[in-house]
Amino acid sequence: MAQNIVEEPVIQNYGIKDYKSETKPIWCPGCGDFGVLSALYNALSNLNIPPEDVAVISGIGCSSRLPGYMATYGFNSVHGRILPIATGVKMANPD
Questions:
Q1: Among 27, 35, 50, 81, which is 20 to 30 Å from 20 by CA?
Q2: C-alpha angle 71-66-26 in degrees, rounded to nearest 5
Q3: What DSSP designation does 71 have?
Q4: Rounded-to-integer distance, Cα 26 and Cα 39, Å
């Protein structure tokens, strides 16, 4: 009798370290951007989204450094252009 062998799909579990770049944040002590970055790491890890499927778009100011602290795709935009650029990224990559 033949035995059916079904291969189990390999599921990659991503941890917070998978989303962190080697660049350490240089925001001022007590800055709220640390909390935003931490929440982003946790959310991506909990959702188990592959880092190569993430694009972080930022504008100007201290928070614009955020893509540099992520091991994902990132883009630093000019003032007021974050939403159109993020929309374009999603339109070009709908999945």
A1: 81
A2: 105
A3: S
A4: 17
**Closest Cα partner for 72 from 62, 47, 60, 2?**
47
- Give the pLDDT score at 80: 86
Phi-psi region of 37 (alpha: psi -120 to 50; beta: other; left: phi over 0): alpha
Q: What are phi and psi of 65, to 5 degrees?
A: -80, -10
> Could you give the C-alpha distances from 85 to 14, 26, 78, in angstroms and in order?
27, 25, 10
In the chain, the DSSP E strands lie at 55-58, 73-76
User: Residue holding tokens 């999945």?
Assistant: 95
C-alpha closest to that of 82 among 93, 63, 70, 94: 63
